[in-house]
């Protein structure tokens, strides 16, 4: 399934060191039940780990990129070896001067491949592994270059302060939304620059329309309709830390549930079809698919859905996000996949990982 992605873009580098899909939305959309078998795109590991809070019977993480698996491995080791506050230090959620020492405590639990990967990145560890990915470095460039140029860094604490919806809209309009902001945002998040610095040019092969304009509108939504004071994704983008909010997997109330569930987690540096091919028909209950269909041709997306439906149990759910490319179940699968459009629309309306254009929830017909 992701083989087409692997053939189109290099997979040797760490693309994401954090998951940029809202885990609260993911868990509500998947409705994981105790004992369920879940397939999860590995990515940076956070949302795969978040699934463990629902006591599934088994979580199978897959990612064609071995660097992403190394990221998941280190986070698993951190949950096993560190306390909650130490985990946050290693991630970079707050300040720390001992991240290399924390890494050395986790290192014995890593595979040789993961040790080799992280041993070569001591400077990255010292800065916090949550900023290690290509996309996170791109966001850091925005934070360190664009915001000071607009004299907005000094206004960021006020932007992130608790306010009513009317007060947020007024602040955004009067203090933030200048013509310079709009121009530089569109330049920085243009298809050309984002493809070469933040993601990969081939990830835009199936994108039509204006990329930056759509992202700017979603940013306005996050800063006015949603509450920035409780948004961990927005806080990281603007400050490089989690100031007053944490993603679900990093919250203290979920730490022990994740730690105690790690024995039910497995991971594979492989394409999903390889893993599903050995799993047997009708063996998976829940699918966390991140935004992998974004990068596929329509034909590859079609084939992927066939594979997933065959591997899924009746009543199982597929959850995925559309960023810039529209992907929904084709009509030919109408008797096998049922869109849960009302639930998806409601959850998308509160999605704190705000830049996605659409959330898709589809249920395998009974």
Quick gist of this model?
By secondary structure, the protein is of the alpha/beta class. The protein has helices at residues 3-8, 23-30, 46-51, 66-81, 84-91, 99-106, 112-119, 122-127, 134-149, 156-159, 165-176, 179-188, 191-198, 211-224, 232-239, 252-261, 272-279, 298-311, 341-348, and strands spanning 37-41, 58-62, 265-268, 284-288, 312-322, 337-339, 358-364.
Task: Tell me what you see in this structure.
With 366 residues, the chain is of the alpha/beta class. It folds into two domains: 3-7 and 18-131 and 248-364, Vaccinia Virus protein VP39 (Rossmann fold); 134-239, no CATH class. The protein contains 19 helices and seven strands. The chain has a seven-stranded mixed beta sheet with strand order 3-2-1-4-5-7-6, sandwiched between helices. Strand 1, helix 3 and strand 2 (58-62) form a beta-alpha-beta unit. Helix 4 (66-81) crosses helix 7 and helix 17 (272-279) runs parallel beside helix 18 (298-311). The longest helix is centred in the first third of the chain and has 16 residues, at 66-81. The two termini are 24 Å apart. The relative contact order is 0.17. Residues 6-10 have low confidence and may be disordered.
CATH topology of the largest domain: Rossmann fold
Give the domain tally.
2
| Largest sheet report | 7 strands, mixed
CATH architecture of the largest domain: 3-Layer(aba) Sandwich
Backbone CA Rg: 20 Å
CATH class of the largest domain: Alpha Beta
- Overall shape: globular
Order of helices and strands: HHEHEHHHHHHHHHHHHHEHEHEEHE
- Count of discrete alpha- or pi-helical segments spanning 4 or more residues: 19
Q: How far is the first residue's CA from the last residue's CA?
A: 24 Å
Report the uncertain regions.
Answer: 6-10
Overall mean pLDDT stands at 90
- Sheet-strand content, in percent, reads 5-15%
Helix-strand category = alpha/beta
Total DSSP E strands: 7
